[in-house]
Amino acid sequence: MRCPLCHVLIAATLLCNVLLLYYTWHLNSRPAGRQSPSPTLSPGITVIVREFRTFEHGLADLNHSFLRARPNLRILIASEALPYPPVPGLNILRIHPSPEQPVSAFRLESQIHTRLVALVPDGTSLNPPDLLDKMARALRDAPSAVRIVAAGAGPVLQCLHLNVSLRTWTAEYTVVSAGETCGAVSGSAVLLMRSRDLFDLPFPLARPVQSTIFIQAALRGWGVKVLKEATFPRTPLPATDHGKWKAEQADRAEEAATMRALNIRLVRGLEGGDRWYGCSKETQRCFGTVVGETPEYLYEGRWTPPCCLRALRITLLHVVKVLEASNVRYWLEGGSLLGAARHKDLIPWDYDVDIGIYLEDITLCPELRGAQGGSLVDSDGFVWERAVEGDFFRVQYSQTNHLHVDLWPFYPRDGVMTRDSWTGHPQDIEFSESFLQPLQTLPFAGAVVQAPNNHVELLKLKFGDRAIEEPQYPNPALLKMNRR
Ligand code: ZN
Q1: How does DSSP classify residue 436?
Q2: Cα 304 to averaged position of ligand 1 atoms, centre (Å)
Q3: 205 versus 84: which is more confidently predicted?
Q4: N or C: which end of the chain has fewer CB within 10 A?
Q5: Rounded to an integer, what distance in angstroms lies between the CA atom of residue 5 and that of residue 117?
Q6: Could you state, in order of their start, the residue ranges of all structural domains in the chain?
C-alpha cells in the first residue's frame, strides 16, 4: 500500500469498530437483575397531597405556602375526582382510572419524576423552608431498614411499634420501648420516602394514607424514623363543625374499605380501643359455605377472622346462659372440647362450636322446644333452629350472620352415650356416660362452661393419643398444617 492516508483511515475505522464493540458489550454486560437508576427519576422531592376533603380544603394555601418556600417543588393533588369547585393553579394527580384514558396515565411512575416523595396532609405549611431537605438528609443518613422519615404536622408524633399478622387478620400497635425503631406514628405527619418504595406498594395512596402505608411497611420490615426536632405548622381541616362531621363519616367508610382490602379485620392499640372491620350481626359472616371441613381462608394460609371468632364466642356464651337457665345438661363436644383442652378457647382456625346435650332435656328449654317446630329468633336476635343437615339443633349469631353453635342431642343406652344419626366425622362416636357423671367445668372463651370429666381421656378416644399436643387442620387429607 502506497497510500499513507489509507493506512490512517483503515486504522481509524478499526479503532472505531473496537470502541463500538466494547461499548455494546459494556451495555449488555450490566447485571440483568439489578435495576440501574431510572433516567426518569431526578433529584428532588415531589409533594403529594392525598389527605384532603373536596368539600372543605386548604389546597390553594398549601400550594402557595410550599411554592413560596421552595419555588421548584412539584406539588400533586392526588384525587379520584377533580376538586369541586375547581381550584386554579393546582396539579391534579388522578388516581382513579377513567375508561377513555390509557392505564399508564394513572400509574404513579408516569406522574412522579423525582427520587423522593413527601406525603403531606391538607392544612400543612412549609416553614421553615428547609424542612423537607432536613427530612431528605435524615432518610439518606438512616440505616437501610429505615425507609420512611416522619415529621409532625401539627402535634408532636408518638412513635409506635406495629405488628401485622395476616394469618390472624390483625394489626396491633404498641408503644415502643426506648431505642427501638418505630414502625408507625400516631398523630398527623408528613411522610418522606423514596419514590421507588412508594411505587412498590400495592396500595400507595389508599386512605387513610398514614396507616395504610405503615401496614404495608410493616409487612416489608421497613422502619420509620421520626424527625423529633422538626414540626410542620398545620391547621387541621375541615375546620367547620359540619365539615368535620362529614369528614369523619367519610374517614370511617374509607378506613373500613381499605382495611378490608388489606385483609385486616381488627386493629388494636389505637385511640378509642379495638376497631373491627369484619362481620357483625347485620352483615354476613366472612366466609362462604365450608366444603370438606376446610374453610376457604385456610387455603390462603389464614385462620378464622377475629370478628368471626368473637361472634362464635358471643353465640356460645348466649347458648350456655340459656341452657343453664333451663337446667339442660350440656357439655363441650368435638373440636370445641379440644380447643378448651389446648388453650381454653376456640381453636383459632375453627369455624363453629359444638355442644352435646341430653336428648331428654330438650323439653326443659323453651328455645329448643320452639326450634323443634322450625326456627325461632330469640329476644337477643339469635336464631334457634332444627338443622336441615341432620338430627341436631343450630343456634345462629343472627338472621344475617350464620356463624353458629351446633347442639348434638345424645341419649344413654346401657351406659353409653349415643345418637340416632352421625356426621361421619371420625371424632363423632359413642362414649361412656361416665364421662358426664359428673360434668366438670372448664374455662373456655372467656367464661366457665360445662365439659365432660376426664376430658383428656375422652379427647384421646375421639381424636387419637397426640391430638392435644399436635394440632392439625380439620381435614388433613385436604389440607395439612404447615409446621414451620
Ligand atoms: Zn367475620
Answers
A1: G
A2: 8
A3: 205
A4: C
A5: 58
A6: 42-232, 304-463
How many angstroms separate the alpha carbon of residue 311 from the centre of ligand 1? 7
Q: Which fold has domain 304-463?
A: Beta Polymerase; domain 2 (3.30.460)
Q: Cα(314) to centroid of ligand 1, in Å?
A: 13
Q: Closest Cα partner for 77 from 101, 103, 111, 105?
A: 111
What spacing in Å lies between the alpha carbon of 190 and ligand 1's midpoint? Answer: 34
Measured distance CA(112)–CA(104) in Å, rounded: 12
Question: Which class for 382: exposed (0-12), middle (13-18), buried (19 or more C-beta within 10 A)?
Answer: buried
DSSP code string of 390-403: SSSEEEES-SS---
Read off the pLDDT band of 9 (50, 70, 90): low
Instruction: Please choose, from the candidates 118, 125, 121, 152, the residue with its C-alpha nearest in 3D space to the C-alpha of residue 62.
Output: 125
Dump the DSSP string for 285-350.
-SS---BTTB-HHHHTT----HHHHHHHHHHHHHHHHHHHHTT--EEE-HHHHHHHHHHSS--TT-
pLDDT tens-digit series, residues 267-305: 999 999 999 999 999 999 999 999 998 999 999 999 999
Rounded to the nearest whole angstrom, what is the distance from the C-alpha of residue 349 to the centroid of ligand 1? 12
Average pLDDT, stretch 469-481?
A: 89
* Rg, Å, the chain Cα set: 32
Distance between Cα 305 and ligand 1 center (Å): 5
Residue 279 CA to ligand 1 centre (angstroms)? 4
- CA of 312 relative to ligand 1 center, distance in Å: 9
CA distance 63 to 124: 10
What is the four-CA torsion angle of 13, 15, 21, 22, rounded to 10 degrees?
A: -160
CA 404 to ligand 1 centroid distance, Å:
12
Q: Output the CA 68–ligand 1 centroid distance in Å.
A: 50
- Using a cut of 0.90, tell me whether the model's pTM lies above it: no
Task: Give the distance (Å) from ligand 1 centre to CA of residue 84.
Answer: 37
CA 162 to centroid of ligand 1, rounded, Å: 22
CA–CA separation, 258 and 211 (whole Å)? 10
Cis peptide before 85 (omega within 30 of 0): yes
Write down the architecture of domain 42-232 according to CATH: Alpha-Beta Complex (3.90)
In this chain, the answer to whether the domains covering 42-232 and 304-463 adopt an identical fold is: no
296 C-alpha vs ligand 1 centroid, how far in Å?
13
